[in-house]
Amino acid sequence: MCGRGELRRSSVAAFLLSLATLIFVSPSSAQSTDVAVIVNPRNSVTDVSSADLRRIFAGGKRYWEDGTRVKPIVRAPGAHERIVLLRFLRMSESEYRQYWSAQVFRGEADTEPLSVPSFGMVKEAVIAFRGAIALVDAQNVRSGMDVKIIRVDGHTPGDAGYPIH
User: Cβ–Cβ contacts within 10 Å for residue 116, how many?
Assistant: First the structure.
């Protein structure tokens, strides 16, 4: 017979084992989700190269082809899209912050990218600024949302070869 203490310990151990399995064995949907590049629907751009996308989010490309000022919108630190952006730029969070502080200090940028905490705020900012561009989890974007998904290197989220995930 097992005592109550042994039963509790075995229940806790079983729970912790199942939790560990979920965390360490099961793939996280956030880790495997493609991240879409969205722009204001009035923006004429339909495709961007990976190189230009890096330049945009690093402040090197400041104007769209029609002369509209580029307005990068980023998620707040810790958000999946921010982690994907940092990996894409090959920077840590502290390097990214230092990089943008230096850009502003040297006068190479007026401000760092607008950082917002939620998908809803990203969407509203992209709608509000004609030159806006942002990264969002592709599963959050639906038709009729007043934002436009653009291709990256000719690919859309979900395509083989899509580079942002």
Answer: 18
Per-residue model confidence (pLDDT) at position 89? 97
Q: Are residues 48 and 123 in the same domain?
A: yes
Asked whether residue 78 falls in the same domain as residue 141, the answer is yes
Strands 148-152 and 132-137: unpaired
- Note whether 41 and 22 are same-domain residues: no
Tokens read off for 99 = 């990089």
Q: How many CB atoms lie within 10 A of CB 23?
A: 9
Summarize pLDDT for 32-50 with one digit per residue, the tens: 589 999 999 999 999 999 9
What's the confidence (pLDDT) of residue 144? 75
Structural domain count, the chain: 2
- According to DSSP, the β-strands at 148-152 and 35-39 are antiparallel
Range of the domain at 3: 1-28
Kindly compute the dihedral angle of the four CA atoms of residues 95, 101, 165, 29, in this order, to the nearest 10 degrees. Answer: 80
Q: What is the pLDDT of residue 10?
A: 52
- What is the pTM (predicted TM-score) of this model? 0.79
Whether 120 and 53 map to the same domain: the answer is yes
Q: How many CB atoms lie within 10 A of CB 137?
A: 20
